[in-house]
Amino acid sequence: MKEEIVQKSMEKLRLKPNLDYDKVVKSFKWDDIKSEIEFFEKGKLNAAYNAVDRHVKTWRKNKVALYWESDNDSKKFTFSELSILSNKFANVLKNLGVKKEDRVFILLPRIPSLYISFLGILKVGAIAGTMFSAFGPSGIKDRLADSTAKVLITDPELKKRVDEIRFELPSLETIIVVGDNVPKEKGVVSYNEEMNKASRNFDIEKTDPEDFSFMLYTSGTTGKSKGIVHAHYSILQQHITAKWVLDLHEEDVMWCTADPGWVTGIAYGILGSWSNGASLVVYEGRFDPAKWYSILEKYNVSIWYSAPTAIRMLMAAGNDILKKYDLSSLRYLCSVGEPLNPEAVKWSVEELGLPFHDNYWQTETGSIMVANYPLMPIKPGSMGKPIPGVRVAIVDDAGKELPIGKEGNLVIQPGWPSMMRQIWQNKEKYDSYFKGKWYFTGDRSSMDKDGYVWFVGRADDVIKTAGERVGPFEVESVLIEHPAVAEAGVIGVPDELRGEVIKAFLVLKPGNEPSEGLKEDIKKFVKTRLAGHAYPKDIDFIKTLPKTRSGKIMRRVLKARELGLPEGDLTTLEE
Ligand code: WT7
């Protein structure tokens, strides 16, 4: 299949690929590409300036940067318009007293103001925190409280969730509300009114490359989600990987389907892609096969960056729908976030004439680390090879490198430009990622003789459902807040469509009887509090949970029992 796929996809590529991997990888140094981005005097820079404003000095000023579409509306914004609007928003923040390093959070659907406010936050030198709009009150509270956010941008509908928990957020000074019907309340201002008053000129903060730009909360095995903090300098790697891996060219229209509440939606749905001067498409609505194909057709999308669950859902929707659309503008496809099964690559080759190119990275790594490139033969099922400048290895638990083909921990040599700079106020957690000379990803993989990396699975209890990362502890914490639940253990179980689905094992409090009605009530409870994507699809009521003598839930035992696998070492079990 290899040579054939390369041949086929090369014909459709139409443009000369940006990266000659074998040539560049040999002697690459990060300093070689510093000229790709623009620095101010004394080595200062600003990621938002690089994404948008630098293009305004060129012919691209009137080029469309953003094609935005919802289910009943559409709008276009040029680089120049985005520059002015984000300047205005930066002034709005400045007038509210926002200073460098203040945390300013966004809780919005994928509407233009989300993109404008993100850029504006970076322009004042504050730290932008994004939240996926499916978060419920407790998910929102955890993030705003941990980061001690000063300002939140939201809309009237989502604000209702914030109102429930606002009394627990003493640091939150101002809520900026987008849209009409802005309530006249203390500490609430109207986005539209403030934007109308604000000047279009703004002196962009000349930040140090190491100054923080954005933060994202992401889940691990233990505790609540952690604030992963990135620096302005990460734009260097986001830019070059958008160019090398997504093969962005001047003439491309790119659709990155990820929400900016997740790292892909920031690194490639905003920063790295605009930095390359490409036009981006944003669709505000939910997943729907016909709508998705119509977006690809309408905007002549050439580069499409999506995720395996979405691809599998398109496959499941059948090819009759697909055939109704002219998708001939597509020239290059990429996928990220969870294992891309070979069948999905096969499907895209057969139906679209193009393979999906898998790539791998994490919220913590800030940009793509391992990838399949346009000129490189794809081995379906493999994530590809490390990007130039990044050294990846497979090691045992002590950090010793393992021979070719052996499964072990996927580790990376620290020092790449877009690496997280901090876990917000949690040095201990940050330090726990590093052992010896390696950064541990928490994933298990192997590497073949050609240097291709093959994903095996997580080394911890983190769940990946529909590409989204969910921490079992967070779900368990919400579950035990339900009045009927005494104890909860949460695991991911394999699912053909979503990769994994969340399953909860619950011990009920005395006086409660298991029932289907109770299951539904508990699911709704989690959905409305934590997040729409993080509720357990499946619930089992059990008498006791397997625990260690110190009281820790043994999720691996729950998983083994669920899947009918050996339970492993049970010497610490106390049931
Ligand atoms: C975890 C990171 C980075 C963008 C979105 C995810 C899993 C990521 C792949 C892939 C198999 C993958 C890993 C990783 N993952 N890409 N190509 N094949 N697994 O960011 O939410 O921080 O999740 O997603 O387990 O550690 P994230």
Q: Explain this structure to me?
A:
It is a single chain. The protein has 575 residues and is of the alpha/beta class. Among the domains are: 76-232, 3-Layer(aba) Sandwich (Rossmann fold), CATH 3.40.50; 464-563, 2-Layer Sandwich (GMP Synthetase, Chain A, domain 3). The chain has a nine-stranded mixed β-sheet with strand order 2-1-11-10-12-13-14-15-16. A hairpin with a 2-residue loop joins strand 23 (463-465) and strand 24 (468-470). Helix 9 (235-244) crosses helix 10. The structure holds 5'-O-[(S)-butoxy(hydroxy)phosphoryl]adenosine (WT7). 5'-O-[(S)-butoxy(hydroxy)phosphoryl]adenosine (WT7) binds next to helix 10, strand 14, strand 21 and strand 22.
